[in-house]
Amino acid sequence: MQASDRFNINSQLEHLQAKYVGTGHADMNRFEWAVNIQRDSYASYIGHYPLLSYFSIAENESIGRQRYTFMQKMLLPCGLPPEREED
């Protein structure tokens, strides 16, 4: 592998991380990563009607109520963020 290949791979990775928020970066902590995963999952559940109807049938709720519940869970999907330690 040459130096130009490494530069090209790194620039492609930086481009993907800038374009797609969920791909993460080196400074991302575990909580931020988990929040991104949960929000992506809820957005997928809302966006795919058959999956949304499956959840609504499984929980015996209307589709609109289930969509509302998922949208509410997207606000704080993993609870409050942990306290950061100041150095």
TrEMBL record:
<dbReference type="GO" id="GO:0000398">
    <property type="term" value="P:mRNA splicing, via spliceosome"/>
</dbReference>
<dbReference type="InterPro" id="IPR017089">
    <property type="entry name" value="Splicing_factor_3B_subunit_5"/>
</dbReference>
<comment type="similarity">
    <text>Belongs to the SF3B5 family.</text>
</comment>
<dbReference type="GO" id="GO:0005686">
    <property type="term" value="C:U2 snRNP"/>
</dbReference>
<protein>
    <recommendedName>
        <fullName>Splicing factor subunit</fullName>
    </recommendedName>
</protein>
<dbReference type="InterPro" id="IPR009846">
    <property type="entry name" value="SF3b5/RDS3-10"/>
</dbReference>
<dbReference type="Pfam" id="PF07189">
    <property type="entry name" value="SF3b10"/>
</dbReference>
<dbReference type="GO" id="GO:0071011">
    <property type="term" value="C:precatalytic spliceosome"/>
</dbReference>
